[in-house]
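task queued by scheduler; priority normal; single chain, no ligands, no partner chains; default sampling; output format set to structure tokens
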Amino acid sequence: MNAISKSMVLEPRNEHFHFKTAERDWHGGDPVKTIIFNAFSIMFPEGEKFFIDSVRNVRNEIDDPVLKKQIKGFIGQEAVHTREHIEYNKQLDLQGYSATKLDAGIRKRMAWVRRNLNKNRQLATTCALEHFTAMMSDLMMSDPSYLEGADSNYQKVWLWHAMEEAEHKGVAFDTLKAVTKNKDYFLRCRSMLISTVLFNYFILNHIAVMLKDRGLSRSPKIWWQVVKFLFGKPGLYRRMALPWLSYFKPSFHPWDHDNRSKVVKTEKYVLGDGQAYA
């Protein structure tokens, strides 16, 4: 654990959000941006249950009392995220999306991982996927344009999720280092490469299915908007490229990028003081 990681105190914020079936295009009336965010939401319930289990599987091997306490906070935060995204995704079904079907695909994949990967490989997969959530969280907290014009309730659920993902971004990583006695480099790099391919396969599949649900999947214009949001300027994935590569440095730690000040500003905004978060 580096100094910042050791200093983090993780307290789950037991927030409840109210998702409206009528808000089908909650992102400023834009179906493409809405569907892209919805595609990520479908990943979270099963994904975050897996994150919890992968850390819980090894916590009895952890001696550091600080890290043990952080693992408890990590599990608490991820459990609340799971609960809220289950509610979010229920609304997607009511809006005519194939959310339950897509969730079943993620559940099947996670079941395969649990059956076929040992505890350390499962934990390394969690580290890789937590890095993805940390990168996206930092961008959302840094650049208001990603959520500009969105319904305030949906905007706040994404920012609440982002700030807690940022807070606990070092926990799975520090846990992996502890259980492997710092012999984790090859394992985490391999897991990142595999996770990158699979994560993006599922995201693009979710986008394609939900566009089809809306009768938009045959429109080149719509797909061009998807490409621009992910890879254009300032495309989400385009801006994640260098942070993604940094994961492969032997000395990498998630808290090499100190964004605690962004978490504080975002928390004030989400909890309702009315101030801008970035």
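post-processing summary
- The mean pLDDT is 94.
- The first helix runs from residue 3 to 7.
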